[in-house]
Amino acid sequence: MKQQNSLKLLFATICLLFGINTHATVYYVKVNGTGNGTSWTYAAGNIQDIIDKAESGDEVWVAKGTYYPTLEMEAGDARSKTFLMKEEVYLYGGFAGDEANIDQRAKYDRDGNGTIEAWEFTNETILSGDIDGVEDVWTKVTNSNGTWNWKVTGNENNCYHIVTASFPSKIDGFSVAGGNASGTKDTDKCGGGIYIFTTTSSITSVINCTVYNNSAVSNGGGIFTSTSNTSVTNCTVRDNSAGIDGGGIYSTSTTSIVYFTLVANSTVHNNSAGSFGGGICDYSPRISSHVSSISITNSTVYNNSAGIDGGGISSMSVSAVYSISVTNSIVYNNNAGEDAIGGISCFSLASSYPVIINNCTVCNNQGRDIHGGRTSCATTANLSEFINPTSFVGCATTENELSELLNADWRLKENSSLINAGLSTLSGEDIMGNPRVQYGVIDRGAYEYTPPLKAIPFIEDFNSCNDFGASAYFWNSYDLKWKIENQKAVFSYTNNPDLNNYSLPLFSYRLDATQKQDVVLKYNMNYGGVAISTLEQLSIEVSTDNGNIWTAIKAFTNSNGNIANQTYQHDISSQVAGKIFYIRFLAHGQNSNNIEKWEIDNVIVKSSTDSDPLPSGINDVKPDYLKYFVRNGYLILQEIESGSVVQLFDINGKLRSNISFSETEAKISLPQKGIYLLKLQSRDKTITKKIVW
Predict the structure, then answer these.
(1) Which residues pair with 37 in a beta bridge?
(2) Which in 112, 331, 570, 611 has the greatest CB count within 10 A?
(3) What share of the chain is helix, strand, coil (3-state, %, to 5)?
(4) Which residues touch 32 (CB under 8 Å, ≥6 apart)?
(5) Nearest to 182 by CA among 157, 148, 149
(6) How many helices (H) and strands (E) in the chain?
(7) C-alpha to C-alpha distance for 598 and 582, rounded to whole angstroms
(8) Per-residue pLDDT tens over the stretch 200-217
(9) Using CA atoms, how far apart are residues 557 and 278, in angstroms rounded to an integer?
(10) Is the pTM value of this prediction over 0.85?
């Protein structure tokens, strides 16, 4: 017993030292609730009372309905009412009022765009700043320079800030609407929806929220964060207004300490700012070696407007070292002032300004798409790369253009040159949560191209294909090197001294063997007309991790002139059975002038339970009748039928040799290096081969 008491005392001491709450509690709130908040049955009715009651680590669950702030930050000023967050107290909305865990919160496609987003809760829980009950009317006003801004009436008596976070905390699953930061104090002129000012190293999180119809006479109509570590994740920030900067989100730091703002997996659209950053504005006013950083990742920023610059995103700094990154995101159809940057504007008075824009789609913004920073992204010059881009520049002004915004599809087309063209150092997930790297190299743009998933068994005989766009099972990102010729997949890469080292694959789509106990790969490997070289090879490989790691199944190298024309079969069960996998035929070498071509035909993937052949009539190929190789300036023929006649023509069609053979092997001298045509006539067949020396 004494030992147990000692252990309890030790655990309690550790919890005290590290601030661990061993008695975390869940409290419950419903509209018109009258209980003490200990359960849904006894739910309380006032959110602020329960926040104040909660301790660090506790959770407050709020059921559907509309709630108004009750705490006055300035006595006698009703507009100073706000939901004041408490340190490390977690506020959750989106409940029907009978759930036992957070994951039971129901969602549906509220906006009808075909996707259920993280913030689309069936049971909407609204935190409203419209405390006077007067209807707010939002109207778009078009300016002479083509930009627009929101004009709002009816919100004159709304709260300055709906949510205020002076301590690290979390708000998850709410709609925050109706704030109007138009007070006389500077702090009451920013952050109409959510105002964050914490000055600690901990993070204030806004998750799964909709922030809309909020305004500020200064900065941050939707969300304002200053000198705080802030995360805005899985949110939509829309239809907000700022008189100066950051219509949707405004981030700044006023100290020399490093703070960051993260905007991830979110949508920022239809916001306006009078000056900079219609969607998002990041501003660092101090000259310091370390100030702040903002990271925007896997997010969509569109149809925002700024009166001066940075219609979508604006970053401004006077610091010597300042970091902003925009990664895996889409910034399109935003407006800014005349001759300005409609997409992403990066401005600094310092010479060192690490602004990084990686793997983004930045298109159809009014004026320039991007200014400043290092970029690796898709721009308006590549609109044909996308499935269904918008057809107009700048913000939508008509019903048809609004419809285009809703139906735009910025995923890459199958033949897009942006596939496998991104920065290989990046990984993770794309904007839709798909693996960021497929086929071994990241794509440029916000979306990673995801190949179709194909069931097995199947056969691809290439008989109905003029190009790989018609192939049901194979895709070729290097279409200038792999082609379909004579109903075969052919690699041809001759006479290109500019690239002495190459590695060029023919990829299959994703193949589904999840229900297969064993898997066999068959294919016809046709003659390649390959000159002698151990450096030119064809590898047959499989991958089960989106093409990041490949396992070689078979490697062909041609040190004797010509590869046998026959069917090959490999049991790949140990590598791929029960999994989703890829196949690739990888042509690689070190001297492109030494290879004529590789030819692949009749690719079959099946298991032992599948019928064979698929379909009937596909026969295995026997090795070539004619066997030959080139060595030291001689063409050497093997296993020749007695009485055969061999003719050798040069590239101009001139006959160089005409010989009848009674032996089964012969040696013919080649006059000089080049390309020849070999013609062999036996009693029952005529064979022609292209010879490269």
Answers:
(1) none
(2) 331
(3) 10, 40, 50
(4) 45
(5) 157
(6) 4, 60
(7) 20
(8) 778 899 999 999 999 999
(9) 59
(10) no
